[in-house]
Amino acid sequence: MAALSIQERKRLRQIGHALNPVVMIGGQGLTEGVIEETNRALNDHELIKVKIAGEDREARGQVIDALIEATGAQAVQKIGKIVLLYKKAAKQNQHLSNLVRHAHLSS
């Protein structure tokens, strides 16, 4: 997967700013259920926020890296316990994609 350009990252961060986390990773860490839910959310929305619980910054980083590897997504931005993930959908859902909705709102 090609790396995102600076312009693409900036646009995705702007869209992501208004989003709320749709996946929460708690004390149990990265489970199959969390990976499935993240994949489903990425398929539907393409751009999502994930919140990772825990105070250990290094442990959160490892969870984020494992989630990115498991889903094939790209991290657009990491701030504290929140990571903004992007994965282009094979077939964009016009009703659910945050990218499509943002395009309609800004035009």
UniProtKB/TrEMBL annotation:
<dbReference type="InterPro" id="IPR017924">
    <property type="entry name" value="RNA-binding_YhbY"/>
</dbReference>
<feature type="domain" description="CRM">
    <location>
        <begin position="2"/>
        <end position="98"/>
    </location>
</feature>
<keyword id="KW-0694">RNA-binding</keyword>
<dbReference type="InterPro" id="IPR035920">
    <property type="entry name" value="YhbY-like_sf"/>
</dbReference>
<dbReference type="Pfam" id="PF01985">
    <property type="entry name" value="CRS1_YhbY"/>
</dbReference>
<dbReference type="InterPro" id="IPR051925">
    <property type="entry name" value="RNA-binding_domain"/>
</dbReference>
<dbReference type="InterPro" id="IPR001890">
    <property type="entry name" value="RNA-binding_CRM"/>
</dbReference>
<protein>
    <submittedName>
        <fullName>Ribosome assembly RNA-binding protein YhbY</fullName>
    </submittedName>
</protein>
<dbReference type="GO" id="GO:0003723">
    <property type="term" value="F:RNA binding"/>
</dbReference>
